[in-house]
Design a protein that fits this description.
Elements (H helix, E strand, L loop, with lengths): L4 E4 L9 H10 L5 E4 L9 E8 L6 H12 L8 E8 L5 H14 L9 E4 L7 H7 L3 H18 L9 E6 L7 H13 L4 E6 L13 H9 L8 H12 L2 E7 L7 H14 L8 E8 L4 H15 L9 E5 L12 H16 L6
Parallel strand pairs: 1-2, 1-3, 3-4, 4-5, 6-7, 6-8, 8-9, 9-10
Helix pairs in contact: 1-5, 2-3, 3-10, 4-5, 6-11, 7-9
Amino acid sequence: MERELLIFRSGLSGCLSGRLGETLNAALAGRTIRFGREGMSLENQRILFAFSLPENGVNAGLWSLLGWLRDHPGCLRGSVGGVVIDGSGDTYTKAAGRDLILAASLAGCAFPGRPLVEATGALQNFTVQARNAGCDLAEAYRLAVSELAERVLGFTPPRKRRPHVLALHASSRATSNTLALWGRVREQLEPACDVTEIGLRNGTLEDCAGCSYTACLHFGEQGGCFYGGVMVQDVFPAIREADALVLLCPNYNDALSANLTAAVNRLTALYRTTSFENKAVFSIVVSGYSGGDIVASQAVSALCVNKGFWLPPGFCLLETANDAGTALALPGIDLRLERFAKNLLTWIQASEAG
């Protein structure tokens, strides 16, 4: 039996108009669809969130949906989603999609890798796809939406009896609240998983310098990268083997640390030749004051939207702790760590009966 695709456009019911509407009508022709709205049950659905953005990037319906998702944890339990953002200008589309994916994940929705189709004002962001497909920009946009819908409808979280988990960090074990929390999580994972931990703090980790596509592809086909080092020697083999990546992220100035950012950028060489679609991404984010959601959204954008890792529901643990050692003394932290570890296992480990 064909699965039904729920189209969610806040404030609209059964109405597809404008460029976004025309694209959805063409891309979804022949599929079984219905329309969703705030307040209806969104559990156990296959959902395509679709919004248009004006030049200023503010869609009141989208903001309303974000508020509703944040107010209703678990409202998307059991659902799988994708996002289409159609912009009138050249800015705000990715930020809007990233914020929606983060809110939906925390509300219980899973996302396959590359779950965002964004269309900028003149569709120039589809230039490469159109050239590769031998079509115009509008057709490349339609094909991208159709392909996303197919992946949302067909996605099943990959699970293994004994999964392999890779944790990446760039912190000092003596002072890091993030590593202290991870240590407790790791204790709960190791009976059921093989766990590898790689620190990127020591030594020199060169950032990606933007090699040409052909150069990057060449080194990727050889299993490496022009710059070599710890990424090629340790991280690339560990990524190939991993079923889940846990990114350990202290909040530095509302951004991923420099070494973690460099590591994500350097994954491009591996991504050229290796699919990450069966690898989940999780994150532990610790802020000294605030802004953990900003760092979590960067992890979403970098690893799920761009690199194609799939995003489990509740993929991140967000905590606030300043002085060294204070994270483990936070009220209720033991329960939250237990829930995070249990959620991670739920999404990557196959049951004995499975």
